[in-house]
């Protein structure tokens, strides 16, 4: 691509254009200036004070005729750089919408286009010594207006203005009413302009006066007061009317139309001393220079009880004659007097649907002032020409009452042209576009016409009085005051600096930079390199050198930048001989993001950098030594994809000094996929090499070369290496195995390290020591039989990984190994039982009974983390060995399946060869698996999977003083059952007497119970907690028992963790619970004085009868939860046809809720419920009303809401239909006496009760809904920002 010489006389063909084809031209900057059209066209408002340079039209999509509020860029199919960044061809600058600040932008543009306001603002001079410019609202408005007038940008930010309001970023996300903003901003300006020439500017421009009067129709006496206003609110549709006013004139006429006070609304006349018919109304005394009309389009629908927007059509004239509205009262009574008493009647104040709060009624000043000769002149009608107003701003709202968008249609007083100011877009519009903002539809004006009308319509109108003596023009730049000229110069310099900075940013390459720091723990450091495109590679290297803080660590000439792929950890290429090449050329130009990164590579002084050529692949080579069973850290080499395996072996031999003739190379393409590279002439690409690869090499004279790869020691070592995980296991404090450190060495003896133990070991410990050694020797035989070796997870930064493996000298058959395991386990149990029987009182005497020292996990003790019965059902249906249940988000299922995909050889299929996996349906349903088969033999696997444990001292010291930890290296394909049996020597009891809990984030624990499942869902450094307690057998379920306390502040209290069995009756489970409750909870209960019932989250449900059988009458699942409820008397529930309802009386006269009482119904009849409630309360049946409670038990509700918010006395005859749906026990029903009136309260008493209720409901965790969230009030802070309450959260 070459540049075209504009002075050349060559033809297009000679210049390189191809005829008949599409040729592309690229317009670029010349000498830092944007491309522009040379012809001088007048497309801007030159008389608006804009400088000549702003009148240049930049290349870009030209505007087209479009609807109001739409700029050309909205409809243009393409954009250009200049059209986006440079000023609109209208010559006006837009305002950027921060988020939802369109209402602010509309008002600011209207004020800017008001000459009198803009000029007055320019005449005000800011004194920096007196105020901070950041918090000065007039100063920031002054700066904004100057930028709107002189900036060459397409749109400018309003953040400086909003910051002066004291707003933070959250305010940008709050949409407010533009009329409310106008009032608040004017108030703030008046406060800031006190004691200045502009102190009365707002009143001079926008304030008018009106008289609010009441005239007696009998004596003519008139009481009145004078109010001031900044805008006139005009009703769109009168209250209760089906038709809206058709025009602004019609609405103004209705505004001043008096109403007659008669009948019950008669007015008490001070002169007549009696109530008389009177006429009440408003009269305009004075109109402001700038007349603001608010069209009240937002209303409240009392039918739906929602805010609505009235989209009815209301026309407005371009010129409005306000002469007829000065005085519409034709009756002149000679007896008219004013009320001079300061306590004058306030009945003359306006109605809410006529006057807004914008009328600042200064009663203390204006009320009771008589009309003297001076003021009476105001009542004289002026010539109509002096009261003709010209429309120049229409603020439009598009949307509904819930929200929408504001923009402004404004007429320039310079050229009379209308423009649409829609945030950053400014475009020309026509009178037809203005008429479209009238609203409404083409149909008749019916009551529902608003619903089908356009939602885009005028909301605020601003007129200016046509008075040549007062009408001002915009100040031109040459006429600016001196202080404004200085400010313009500063803003221009700032804008130029910003433009230069933006140009630099546009030419800056930003790319991720990495560096393996030679000192900081050899960690890969990451940063972002920002370098100009014209900087050379040498300069970029110096910048990266400083950025990575290598000064004084490595010489600069020992560093270089290379192309790097972080994802694949791949060095793509180096840049030899390109030190003087610009970075923009090396990186392929300036881009928002790159598909690659840079690495700052370092070397030692004696080393030489290796060149990295494009097309090479990186290979991490791990050397395997079968003699020592070790896998070395990786050595990185580079190869080509078209190299053969033979050439690749030669390359490895040079790097590792191994023999290429006896070398075996194994490629690990992905997890579970090991491929032996044995075809000499096959290329690396054909074998599946990619950018970054991992291989294992072994070179020795071992006979292992002659064995099939999947049966070789090399495969077994690599297989174990890939599947071994490291787990941190916390042992119980009571564990005998914690009194000594056991270091299991495969192929060797057990190391026993005494840690301060004193005295002789007891018999249990001696037996455990002997049994541990036997188990280890047995493990050795199993390992030899399966040729599975020890492994320890390797990392790239470790030195050498010591992997211990036995020599395959003895290979007992699998059946003999299984027999030894089973016999040894039973022998261990029996010896422990005999040894501990005398001293421990038979604590281990029966492994089938509950372990007396059973511990609870944190999640069991804390009932807030408990699983619901609903969640338990979900858990029981899962085949995952672990499921973390979160009370807030529900159960989180964990991935459990083994990764079975394999291209050459599957580790799982090989590991499970000869092993039978069975799933018993009952075991699945019960949520656990038995450790014993049908013949009572242990289900220990015949195929041994690697397990090695060693003591571990926790870094945080939490293991001190009792609890010990074990670091376990284990093959994750081992089942939970085998894992527990391997832990027996360290825990000190058999696997049936302890439980395994997996520890999740935030120290949440959940028990792993599926013994037939593997540890495949576990990963490196997972934590496990061992707790003493009997493990579940087939058909058993672990159950959490909670006490139901219906009248307590916390109705759900955790009691114990127990076990229920399939086929057990409720009565039998209660009998087993009684001694446990007495021992652990100090609850001495009679079997007839408590019941069990269903628990769903915190809601009580079905009452379980004594003869119900688990799994037959009652569905049960793992980690089930049940309520225990202590009864006051004998059990009333005898049959499943009965219904137990919890009732609570509401007494409005005392503003009080009585305690719960249970009512047992024989049927679902509403009549029976009301009879029972009448019987226990004494309320006559005809006066009794009831309502169903809402939400979670105990269905708490504020006493300030309950009387109105509940659905009292539903018109149904049975309880099991809508809207009640009471079909199960435990439903909450409130009832009351319909003749009882709520207690009368003062405002202070109500506020006090509100605070109490808020505190009560927050403590119980229930939502406080009687104080609904209010829309955030619009405020402008004159002191720079809101003052936060120190007690506020």
What does this structure look like?
23% of the residues lie in helices and 23% in strands. It is of the alpha+beta class and 1289 residues long. The radius of gyration is 44 Å and the shape is flat. The two termini are 63 Å apart. The model is unreliable at 37-84, 328-385, 442-451, 735-942, 957-961, 1263-1270 and 1284-1289 (pLDDT under 50). Residues 853-863, 910-919 have a biased composition (Basic and acidic residues).
Based on helices, strands and strand pairing, what is the structural class? alpha+beta
Low-confidence stretches: 37-84, 328-385, 442-451, 735-942, 957-961, 1263-1270, 1284-1289
Taken as a percent bin, the fraction of beta residues is: 15-25%
Q: Look at the structure and give the mean pLDDT.
A: 75
The largest sheet, given as strand count, sense and whether it forms a barrel, is: 8 strands, mixed
Distance between the termini: 63 Å
Helicity range: 10-25%
- The tally of strands reads 50
Radius of gyration: 44 Å
> What gross morphology would you assign?
flat
Number of DSSP helical runs: 29
Biased composition (Polar residues): 1-14, 41-52, 335-357
Biased composition (Acidic residues): 920-933
GO molecular function: cysteine-type deubiquitinase activity
Biased composition (Low complexity): 778-797, 805-818, 866-882
Short descriptors:
alpha+beta
Please provide a brief summary of the model.
By secondary structure, this protein is an alpha+beta fold. It is 23% helix and 23% strand. Residues 778-797, 805-818, 866-882 have a biased composition (Low complexity).
């Amino acid at each position: 691509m070459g540049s075209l010489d504009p002075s050349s006389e060559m033809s297009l063909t000679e210049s390189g254009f191809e005829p008949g084809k599409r040729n592309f031209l690229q317009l670029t900057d010349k000498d830092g200036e944007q491309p522009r059209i040379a012809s001088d066209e007048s497309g801007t408002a030159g008389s608006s004070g804009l400088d000549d340079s702003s009148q240049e039209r930049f290349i870009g999509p030209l505007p087209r005729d479009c609807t109001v509020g739409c700029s050309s860029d909205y409809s243009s199919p393409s954009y250009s750089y200049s059209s986006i960044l440079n000023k609109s061809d209208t010559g006006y600058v837009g305002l950027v919408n921060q988020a939802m600040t369109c209402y602010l932008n509309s008002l600011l543009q209207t004020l800017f286009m008001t000459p009198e306001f803009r000029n007055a603002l320019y005449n005000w001079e800011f004194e920096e010594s007196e105020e901070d410019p950041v918090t000065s609202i007039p100063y920031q408005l002054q700066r904004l207006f100057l930028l709107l007038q002189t900036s060459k940008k397409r749109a400018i930010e309003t953040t400086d203005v909003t910051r002066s309001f004291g707003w933070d970023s959250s305010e940008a996300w709050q949409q407010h009413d533009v009329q409310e903003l106008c009032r608040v901003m004017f108030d703030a300006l008046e406060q800031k302009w006190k004691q200045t020439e502009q102190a009365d500017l707002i009143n001079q421009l926008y304030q008018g006066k009106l008289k609010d009067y009441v005239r007696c129709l009998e004596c003519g006496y008139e009481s009145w007061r004078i109010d001031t206003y900044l805008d006139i609110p005009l009703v769109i549709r009168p209250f209760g009317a089906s038709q809206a006013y058709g025009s602004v004139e019609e609405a103004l006429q209705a505004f001043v139309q008096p109403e007659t006070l008669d009948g019950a609304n008669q007015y008490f006349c001070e002169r007549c001393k009696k109530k008389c018919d009177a006429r009440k109304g408003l009269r305009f005394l004075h109109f402001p220079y700038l007349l603001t009309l608010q069209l009240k389009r937002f209303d409240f629908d009392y039918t739906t009880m929602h805010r609505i927007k009235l989209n009815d059509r209301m026309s407005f004239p371009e010129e409005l004659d306000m002469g007829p509205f000065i005085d519409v009262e034709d009756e002149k009574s000679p007896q008219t007097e004013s009320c001079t008493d300061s306590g004058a009647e306030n009945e003359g104040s306006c109605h809410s649907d006529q006057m807004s709060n914008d009328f600042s009624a200064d009663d203390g000043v204006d009320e009771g002032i008589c009309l003297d000769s001076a003021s009476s002149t105001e009542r004289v009608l002026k010539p109509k020409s002096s009261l003709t107003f010209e429309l120049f701003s229409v603020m439009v709202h598009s949307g509904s009452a819930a929200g929408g968008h504001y923009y402004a249609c404004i007429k320039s007083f310079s050229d009379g042209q209308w423009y649409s100011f829609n945030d950053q877009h400014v475009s020309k519009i026509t009178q037809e576009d203005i008429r479209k903002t009238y609203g409404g539809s083409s149909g008749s004006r019916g009551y529902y016409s608003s619903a089908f009308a356009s939602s885009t319509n005028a909301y605020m109108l601003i007129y200016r009085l046509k008075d040549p003596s007062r009408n001002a023009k915009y100040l031109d730049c040459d006429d600016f005051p001196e202080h404004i000229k200085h400010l313009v110069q500063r803003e221009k310099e700032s804008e130029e600096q910003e433009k230069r900075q933006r140009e630099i940013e546009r030419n800056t390459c930003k790319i991720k930079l990495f560096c393996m720091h030679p000192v900081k723990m050899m960690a890969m450091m990451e940063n972002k390199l920002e370098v100009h495109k014209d900087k050379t590679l040498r300069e970029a290297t110096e910048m990266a050198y400083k950025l990575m803080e290598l000064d004084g660590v490595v010489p600069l000439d020992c560093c270089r930048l290379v192309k790097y792929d972080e994802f694949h950890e791949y060095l793509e290429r180096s840049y030899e001989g390109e030190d003087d090449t610009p970075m923009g050329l090396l990186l392929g130009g300036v881009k928002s993001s790159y598909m690659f990164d840079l690495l700052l590579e370092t070397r030692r002084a004696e080393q030489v950098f290796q060149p990295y050529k494009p097309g090479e692949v990186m290979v991490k080579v791990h050397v395997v030594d079968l003699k020592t069973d070790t896998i070395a850290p990786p050595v990185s080499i580079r190869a080509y994809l078209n190299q053969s395996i033979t050439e690749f072996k030669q390359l490895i031999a040079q790097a590792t000094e191994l023999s290429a003739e006896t070398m075996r190379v194994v490629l690990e393409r992905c997890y579970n996929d090991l491929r032996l590279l044995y075809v000499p002439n096959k290329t690396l690409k054909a074998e599946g090499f990619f950018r970054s690869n991992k291989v294992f090499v072994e070179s020795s004279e071992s006979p292992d070369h002659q064995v099939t790869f999947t049966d070789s020691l090399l495969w077994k070592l690599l297989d174990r290496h890939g599947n071994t995980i490291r787990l941190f296991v916390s042992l119980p404090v009571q564990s005998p195995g914690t009194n000594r450190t056991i270091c299991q060495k495969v192929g060797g003896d057990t190391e026993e390290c005494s840690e301060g133990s004193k005295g002789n070991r007891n018999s249990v410990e001696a037996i455990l020591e002997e049994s541990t050694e036997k188990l280890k020797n047995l493990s050795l035989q199993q390992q030899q039989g399966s040729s599975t070796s020890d492994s320890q997870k390797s990392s790239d930064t470790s030195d050498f990984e010591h992997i211990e493996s036995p020599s395959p000298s003895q290979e007992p058959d699998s059946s003999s190994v299984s027999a030894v395991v089973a016999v040894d386990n039973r022998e261990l149990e029996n010896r422990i039982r005999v040894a501990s029987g005398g001293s421990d009182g038979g604590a281990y005497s029966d492994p089938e009974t509950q372990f007396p020292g059973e511990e609870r996990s944190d999640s069991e003790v804390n009932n807030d983390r408990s699983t619901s019965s609903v969640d338990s059902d979900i858990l029981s249906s899962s085949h995952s060995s672990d499921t973390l249940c979160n009370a807030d988000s529900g159960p989180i299922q964990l991935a459990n399946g083994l990764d079975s995909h394999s291209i050459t050889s599957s580790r799982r299929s090989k590991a499970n060869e000869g092993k039978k996996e069975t799933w018993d349906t009952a075991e699945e349903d019960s949520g656990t698996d038995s450790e014993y088969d049908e013949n009572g033999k242990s289900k220990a696997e015949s195929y041994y999977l690697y397990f090695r444990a060693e003591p571990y001292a926790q870094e945080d010291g939490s293991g001190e003083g009792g609890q010990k930890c074990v670091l376990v290296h284990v093959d994750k394909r081992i089942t939970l059952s085998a894992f527990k049996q391997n832990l027996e020597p360290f825990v000190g009891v058999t696997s049936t007497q302890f439980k395994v809990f997996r520890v999740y984030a935030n120290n949440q624990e959940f028990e792993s119970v599926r013994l037939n499942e593997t540890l495949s869902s576990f990963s490196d450094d997972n934590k496990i907690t061992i707790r003493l307690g009997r493990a579940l057998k087939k058909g058993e379920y672990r159950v959490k028992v909670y006490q139901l306390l219906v009248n307590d502040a916390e109705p759900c209290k955790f009691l114990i963790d127990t076990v229920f069995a399939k086929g057990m009756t409720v009565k039998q489970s209660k009998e087993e619970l009684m001694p446990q409750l007495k021992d652990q909870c100090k609850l001495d209960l009679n079997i007839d004085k408590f019941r069990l019932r269903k628990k769903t989250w915190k809601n009580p449900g079905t009452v379980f009868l004594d003869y119900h059988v688990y799994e037959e009458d009652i569905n049960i699942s793992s980690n089930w939860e049940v309520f225990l409820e202590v009864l006051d008397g004998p059990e009333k529930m005898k049959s499943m046809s009965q219904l137990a309802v919890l009732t609570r009386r509401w007494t409005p006269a005392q503003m009080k809720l009585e305690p719960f009482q249970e009512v047992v119904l024989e049927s679902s009849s509403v009549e029976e419920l009301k009879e029972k409630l009448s019987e226990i309360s004494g309320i006559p049946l005809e006066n009794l009303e009831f309502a169903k409670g809402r939400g979670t038990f105990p269905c708490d509700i504020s006493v300030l809401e309950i009387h109105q918010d509940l659905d009292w006395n539903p018109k149904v005859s049975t309880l099991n239909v809508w809207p009640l749906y009471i079909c199960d026990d435990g439903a909450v029903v409130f009832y009351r006496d319909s003749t009882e009136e709520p207690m009368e309260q003062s405002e202070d008493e109500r506020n006090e009760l509100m605070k109490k209720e808020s505190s009560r409901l927050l403590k119980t965790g229930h939502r406080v809904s009687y104080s609904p969230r209010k829309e955030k009030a619009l405020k402008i802070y004159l002191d720079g920002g809101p003052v936060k309450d120190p007690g506020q959260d």
